[in-house]
Specification:
Elements (H helix, E strand, L loop, with lengths): L10 E6 L6 H13 L3 E6 L4 H11 L3 E4 L13 E2 L1 H4 L6 E5 L2 E5 L2 H11 L8 E4 L3 H12 L5 E4 L3 H11 L2 E3 L9 E4 L18 H5 L3 E4 L8 H9 L2 E3 L1 H17 L5 H13 L1
Helix pairs in contact: 1-9, 1-10, 4-5, 4-9, 9-10
Length: 274
């Protein structure tokens, strides 16, 4: 189906983020068109999360992607949690089945898959920047992928120390003298439209000393951190890669159809070209 041919029977899926981008919108709508599915996808933001989630239920919106900063707050507003969300107390996907809202976390699956596919050595000493829902997915994926040496770096003492302790890692409020092999940015620093859009989440010399830099921010695709890491010669994993991998899991949950590897690759390329 051409996604411009929207009718009363077209199924709507959405996303909620503090600063929406068009990447997920282009990804999902491209696949709907290629697979002939009568669906359409639209990105939104909100200052009233409870009303937005109530709208999903009331209007029969099939699915909703959840991005920063709503991944934890939304838990109290859904009806049930899949094991993927329950295990890490963080949500990035909601599926509406006849008014029942079930929450999932496909970020975890994407992060674990990228660590594996890019062969990031589990013996690497890491620093995860941030303590929110995405940071939780990253820390859980690192632990479950065999990483044992690392720290959660977060200014929020309560959230940061609790997250680190839960998964058996260290916590510190700033990067300080730490020079990790692997840096994972799970903060909004570098996100387009934000107050720190042009900033690095850690000093440049920390980036320069890393072997691998893993950026979670997807908008823009080339954040200041990604640009600095490429200049320094580090291996780079981008937020657009995370977004695409978690999106294909969302797509399958929403539609019941799993794209082929070729369809996934084409949709990913299309989403990045916008």
């Amino acid at each position: 189906m051409d996604t411009t041919e929207i009718t009363k029977d077209t199924t709507l899926c959405i996303s909620l983020a503090a600063r929406p981008s068009s990447i997920g919108t282009r990804f999902h709508n491209h696949l709907y068109s290629q697979l002939g599915l009568d669906y359409v996808y639209k990105a939104f933001t909100t200052t009233d999360l409870a009303s937005a989630i109530a709208g999903i239920r009331a209007l029969g919106i099939r699915g909703c992607g959840v991005s920063m900063p709503f991944k934890e707050e939304v838990i109290a507003l859904v009806d049930s949690l899949d094991a993927s969300a329950q295990a890490i107390s963080s949500v990035n996907t909601i599926v509406n089945t006849d008014g029942h809202l079930r929450a999932y976390n496909t970020d975890y699956l994407a992060v674990a898959g990228l660590l594996r596919d890019r062969e990031v050595p589990p013996q690497s000493r890491f620093a995860v920047l941030g303590s929110g829902g995405m940071a939780r997915a990253v820390v859980a994926a690192l632990r479950d992928s065999g990483f044992t040496k690392g720290a959660v770096v977060a200014r929020n003492r309560d959230a940061g120390s609790a997250l680190a302790a839960e998964y058996g890692f260290d916590w510190q409020p700033t990067i300080g003298d730490l020079r990790p092999d692997l840096i994972v940015n799970a903060t909004p620093v570098g996100m387009a439209g934000g107050p720190d859009a042009d900033a690095l989440p850690v000093p440049g010399e920390v980036v320069d000393s890393a072997s691998t830099v893993f950026e979670v921010v997807a908008n823009p695709a080339e954040t200041p951190l990604v640009r600095r890491a490429r200049t320094s010669g580090a291996a780079v994993i981008t937020g657009t890669e995370v977004l695409a991998l978690q999106a294909v899991e969302q797509f399958t949950l929403y539609t019941g159809v799993r794209p082929t590897a070729e369809q996934f690759a084409l949709a990913t390329a299309f989403s990045r070209a916008g």
